Amino acid sequence: MVIVLDISGSMGGQKIEMAKEAAKAPLALLRDTDSFGLVAFDYNFYWPVKIQSAANRAGISTAISTIIAGGETNIYPAQREAFIALAGATSQVKHVILLSDGRSLPDDFEGLTKKMAESKITVSTVAVGNGADRELMEQMAKWGSGRTYYLEDPTA
Fold first, then answer.
1. Closest Cα partner for 60 from 68, 51, 69?
2. What distance in Å separates the CA atoms of residue 81 and residue 14, rounded to the nearest whole number?
3. Which among 31, 39, 41 is positioned nearest to 10, based on CA atoms?
């Protein structure tokens, strides 16, 4: 599993704190033999949690806790990076969860997400707040054979 987490400026304050907790939540459901990673993005992206064994829950949680928000929303490069990382993985189940509250710079989201699905990588999305591009997030989940969720209130 790879979380693709929006850390743009609009995610600041309580929203980023809630998003970090949401990013940690799957760790309780994963087995020690499962893998977990997190790509954070604003205009650029980086890996606060490189793909590793979910058994390192404490280290992963600590790394997620250090994330801070700032910058512009640019989903595509981070989503592509998650695809590249999972495309070569030997796991039977490969899943990406995209969490964002904004509208991204435009790109070929349909092409990328369909390539992910063809590579047996499912994509689910979580749109947070009324500023999120719900239409894009819903389409990405559809193209990626995943689910989409909308949260008006980040505490939900």
1. 51
2. 27
3. 41
Rg (CA), the chain: 14
Contact 122, 95 (CB under 8 A): yes
In angstroms, what CA-CA distances link 93 with 89, 122, 126, 139? 10, 8, 20, 21
- Tens of pLDDT along 92-150? 999 999 999 988 999 999 999 999 999 999 999 999 888 889 999 999 999 999 999 99
Q: Is the separation of the CB atoms in 79 and 50 below 8 Å?
A: no
pTM of the model: 0.94
- What is the percent of the chain where pLDDT is above 90? 85
**Residue 10: which of 139, 156, 96, 127 has the closest Cα?**
127
Q: What secondary structure letter does DSSP report for 124?
A: E
Per-residue pLDDT at 107 = 96
How is residue 10 annotated by DSSP?
G
Cβ partners under 8 Å of residue 93, min gap 6: none
What is the distance between the alpha carbons of residues 38 and 78, in angstroms, rounded to a whole number? 10
